[in-house]
């Protein structure tokens, strides 16, 4: 939980506990995949809001230019406050503000999560009336601006909720046209939301949280359902630069592993049996050929030669 004074202060990423990396589920094994591509070198830019702007409401809209199909993540005081895919070389996203000074910048990521250089930084001020009334601010963030899962499988998103007074009302719009998901979160801290997409594609996810006093927080993210994207969806590409390497481990359930391993084992055994069968046919043919030669030789050795007539004696008698 983030503890805050009853006067406007500036929040930073250090005030937020980082989420741990998820561990593989029991009964699963790791499949290591390596893909190489250059990291993006172009930077995003922030055109709005203007540097030095003061706000009394939140969220606000942050917009600017970017590289097509890259993921744009917006950071406020070092904490992730939103993510969106770049389309038509521009982006526009709503982000929640911290009370007091907010140092905002944007970073682009390719599909291997390789980061571009940071954008320009802007500083805005948020004079929060809710903070003055209730003495606490609700913040919602995550270590993941983008998460992926196969269609039909649960996509789980770890979130971190800080401040405010529980219980909290949580709403999640998964961006696929299905009804907004509503749930209650009794206490602040780490929690997760999950969803299964029916079709491959890239979806904009919007998470909203409100505490018992009506103080709210807002977080926009990007979800990916693996496979060929549907019409209108985009996929990540890279900019220029030296080639980078990213290795990922995909944890698969044992049952899936067996499904993959059994056909491989059967094909391997079948190939081995075919090879043995061919070798056996060759050996049998060689053996039969040698046996035929030996039988011919034995037959020739045992046959009795026909008698030769004494032509000389017959000639003598005739004479």
What can you see in these coordinates?
The termini are far apart. The longest helix is centred in the C-terminal third of the chain and has 49 residues, at 254-302. The protein has helices at 129-134, 254-302, 311-318, and strands at 28-37, 54-55, 60-65, 71-76, 79-85, 90-95, 100-109, 122-126, 139-141, 146-149, 154-162, 168-173, 181-185, 189-196, 201-210, 216-225, 244-253. The protein is 20% helix and 37% strand.
| Helicity level | 10-25%
| CATH-scheme architecture of the largest domain | Sandwich
* Structure class: alpha+beta
Q: What is the name of the CATH class of the largest domain?
A: Mainly Beta
Q: Low-confidence stretches at least 5 residues in length (pLDDT < 50)?
A: 1-17, 231-252, 254-261, 308-319
Q: What would you call the quaternary organization?
A: single chain
Query: What does the average pLDDT come to?
Result: 75
User: Which term fits the overall shape?
Assistant: globular
- Topology order in helix (H) and strand (E) letters: EEEEEEEEHEEEEEEEEEHH
Strand order of the largest sheet: 2-8-7-4-5
Radius of gyration: 37 Å
- The CATH H-level superfamily of the largest domain is Immunoglobulins
Number of helices: 3
